[in-house]
Design goal:
single chain; alpha+beta; 7 domains; 7-stranded mixed sheet; 6-stranded antiparallel sheet; 27 helices; 28 strands; elongated; HAD_sf; HAD-like_sf; metal-binding; phosphoprotein
Length: about 800
């Protein structure tokens, strides 16, 4: 009696190792079992029995070359301080237990910070301490666990993945077998139609039938292998997915055909089976192309076309689009801004927080000449950087797929999965009843009826409707400067009933304001110092004041920059310690209800700049369109403009002033506790916490944008007065998907009616599958275009 290895599940042929009352096929499997149990990861074997991977016996010294500096730089995604990120291709990833184990690596090795698996691409991204764990040692560690990484020039180049050609090869084999199978089966079909017997055909029909069997066999076991794998893994995980009835149909046709040929009952259905799989694979190819088109359309630049500040060699500043940056350009990065491209530090004191990339909050000091990776956030004074890689080459292009930007399963996807699950059981029940009925009426026809039911009922169009519709809507919104993170956000937008607006920089302009200085005349020495300090801040009032000070822009080194959120910031410029911020921050009591920036030098009060905000155009019209929502306004400023805001927004439920970032976040929580679906509009800086807490965080940006993972949407400030259109279009998108569901189900009901009554052949059912998918795509494209044209000019 053969025994199976407890770890990998393979039959033990040679070596038999007993350990801990279990049997293993080799020392590698035994070692992995020991490692897992020592680290309390025994649940690995409960997820999927016999799902382990046998450790590779190859010499792991083959990975030593990874530690050479040139190769290390080529292979890794990011390396700074103690932390390195690397993405490794691991082809043997195949099930949920593989994912679970690979994402638990940090419990096996203390020098691994985290790991994240991309199952569809068969790779894992790992963050590790390269000072304690070499890259070669990491590769050996994975190999010893049975997950040997594949590292070659293609994987090291980090090129965007191209279309998988194996599907095309499978389709080509099925097409070749289908065409030739029809050719070899033609004589028998002709005989049946004409009712005559040909001596030559009778003599060679067995040869033709054997050739058709040879043609059909690789189609069934290679071209259709993905359906078998999907059905098998689903059943292993106790899930009856939609591929189960398809596999049953394929096996029934194939088995019946072999039976007919062996018993000389007839030619079988080999040609029909090849045609069936050809058209099914054609539909699958079409669907895969559709998904790829959606993902390729949404690169990182499409989410952030907001301007960055470019500096020429005369210190002249210019705001340009992020995708217009070229190698050699110099850019300015202020406090709390994320570096948009890989660059070299030219001027300033770098203090880079890489938590957005690595998940760790430790900051890395940088000095002029050091390299700074895209995605790091500057904490402190302004930096001047020289671009060494464009946006599409920088590590920032991968950030959207990081945990902060991770796509989650949408409610519509869940609806699709639920419908598919129940649909499968219903189809299997209908198939069983139809099989019993036709088995009594016409045993030969039963096989065709059962196969036709199993094939025509495949809800491919159902699965395609949601991503295709949402993909269209995301692109249309993006063209109109409303950049949505993922399809879940569109669904959330459709459910929003409460809107919370930050005032400064959101419903008011960042740069447009009436500014008056109150205090003694400031000497040019102080004005230049103040302007250099203002350059370091991203606060809307600081930006406005920076533009207001009409003096030659001279960059002066800023030292000891320190910001107190909601209060202000201080720093040393040319030996003088300045404080810029609120009255209390500079040691002054608030005198009036006014918006002002107070300034002190060496603890001596210099005066204040008083601001009168300028609101965005048609703000009153925007709020009147949003009357169906619960409206709230929050502001970090005082209540000097309370009466004006109440007149501007007569439907507002509440206006709160002097709100700190924590106050805004808590206010959002209070609304959510009352079961409201909240969208927060803010400038993405002091509002980061509130944006993240809200159901949908919308960062409003004008010229320069502080990149933040807290927001679900980034919209151009000029589009604020069109906010209602985006909410309406999101609701239309959800309704379009639901309507498409209904169309897909209608297709299946009609198809099943014909199949059950025996009026639909398996081949015709296979032809109808891609046609139904194509019709759904055409419908969603047409309807989304019509609905979008109602709101926006989309034929650009």
């Amino acid at each position: 009696m053969s025994e199976n290895c407890f770890h990998c599940g393979q039959i033990i042929e040679k070596e038999r190792i007993a350990f801990d009352e279990k049997i293993f096929c080799c020392n590698g499997c035994k070692s992995v079992y020991e490692i897992l149990n020592m680290n309390d990861l025994g649940n690995f074997y409960k997820l999927n029995k016999s799902s382990g991977i046998r450790p590779n016996d190859d010499n792991t010294s083959q990975f030593d070359y990874l530690d050479t500096p040139e190769v290390f730089t080529k292979v890794t995604d990011f390396s700074e301080g103690n932390t390195t990120l690397v993405t490794l291709k691991i082809p043997v990833i195949h099930c949920s237990s593989c994912i679970w184990l690979l994402e638990s690596l940090h419990t096996l090795n203390k020098n691994i910070n985290y790991s994240q698996v991309n199952f569809t691409r068969k790779n894992v991204q790992i963050s590790f301490n390269h000072n304690e764990l070499k890259l070669s040692e990491l590769a050996k560690f994975l190999t010893n666990l049975g997950y040997k990484p594949v590292i070659n020039l293609e994987t090291a180049d980090k090129k965007e993945e191209h279309f998988d050609k194996t599907l095309v090869i499978k389709l080509a084999i099925a097409g070749f077998a289908f065409g030739n199978g029809m050719f070899f089966s033609y004589p028998e079909y002709a005989e049946q139609v004409m009712g005559t017997t040909d001596f030559w055909m009778e003599q060679y029909k067995h040869l033709f039938r054997f050739i058709m069997f040879l043609l059909a066999t690789p189609v069934v076991f290679y071209s259709a292998s993905d359906y078998f794998k999907s059905a098998w893994f689903g059943l292993k995980n106790k899930i009856v997915n939609i591929d189960v009835p398809i596999v049953l149909g394929i096996l029934m046709l194939y088995g019946r055909s072999i039976y007919e040929v062996l018993t000389d009952y007839g030619p079988g259905y080999f040609d029909t089976l090849c045609g069936l799989l050809f058209f099914m694979l054609l539909g699958k190819l079409f669907q895969k192309r559709t998904y790829d088109a959606l993902s390729y359309d949404r690169d990182y630049k499409s989410f952030y076309p907001i301007a960055v500040t470019k500096v020429d060699f005369n210190d002249k500043q210019q705001n340009i689009l992020l995708n217009e940056l070229n190698v050699g350009d110099r850019i300015m990065v202020r406090n709390q801004e994320i570096i948009p491209v890989d660059a070299i530090l030219i001027q300033g004191e770098g203090n880079i927080d890489n938590s957005f990339i690595t998940g760790e909050s430790a900051s890395i000091p940088k000095k002029p000449g050091d390299k700074i990776f895209a995605g790091g956030k500057q904490v402190g004074s302004v930096l001047e950087l020289e671009v060494i890689k464009t946006v599409n080459q920088s590590y920032l292009t991968q950030l959207w797929n990081k945990e902060a930007f991770k796509k989650y399963e949408t409610g519509l996807d869940t609806m699709t999965n639920d419908i598919s699950k129940y649909f499968t059981f219903i189809i299997l029940g209908i198939t069983l009843l139809a099989g019993i009925y036709w088995g009594r009426q016409d045993f030969e026809k039963m096989f065709q009826v059962v196969a036709a039911i199993l094939i025509v009922a495949c809800p491919c169009a159902l699965a395609l409707s949601a991503p295709f519709t949402m993909g269209h809507i995301m692109r249309i919104m993006g063209r109109n400067k409303f950049y949505v993170k993922d399809t879940l956000t569109i669904e959330k937008l459709a459910k929003i009933d409460t809107l919370v607006f930050d005032k400064t920089g959101t419903i008011t302009h960042n740069k447009k304001a009436t500014i008056v200085f109150e205090g003694a005349d400031l000497p040019d020495f102080d004005i230049k110092n103040i302007k250099s300090l203002l350059k370091n801040s991203n606060h809307p009032l600081s930006k406005s004041l920076y533009d207001f000070l009409e003096i030659e822009d001279e960059y002066l080194p800023v030292e000891n920059f320190l910001e107190t959120p909601g209060k202000g910031y201080s720093a040393t410029v040319r030996g003088k310690v300045y404080k810029i911020g609120s009255a209390s921050f500079t040691g002054q009591p608030p005198r009036n209800l006014e918006t002002a920036v107070h300034i002190s030098c060496d603890d001596q009060y210099l005066g204040k700049f008083i601001f009168t905000n300028e609101y965005r155009p048609n703000t009153a019209g925007m709020f009147s369109e949003l009357k169906d929502f619960n409206l709230h306004i929050l502001s970090g400023d005082n209540s000097s403009e309370e009466e004006y805001l109440k007149n501007l927004v007569p439907t507002v439920e509440e206006i709160r002033f002097n709100q700190s970032p924590e106050d805004k976040l808590n206010f959002i929580k209070q609304l959510q506790d009352k079961h409201h679906k909240v969208a927060m509009m803010g400038d993405g800086l002091n509002d980061a916490g509130a944006l993240k807490q809200s159901n949908v965080g919308i960062a409003v940006a004008d010229d320069t944008h502080s990149f933040t993972p807290s927001s679900d949407v980034i919209m151009a400030g000029e589009k604020m007065n069109e906010l209602k259109k985006y909410f309406d279009l999101s609701k239309d998108a959800v309704n379009i998907v639901k309507f498409t569901f209904a169309i897909s189900l209608f297709y299946n009901v009609i198809g099943l009616s014909f199949a059950v009554t025996g009026h639909l052949s398996p081949l015709v059912a296979a032809v109808l599958m891609p046609i139904s998918s194509i019709s759904v795509v055409i419908f969603t494209s047409l309807v989304t275009w019509i609905r979008s044209a109602k709101y926006f000019q989309i034929n650009k």
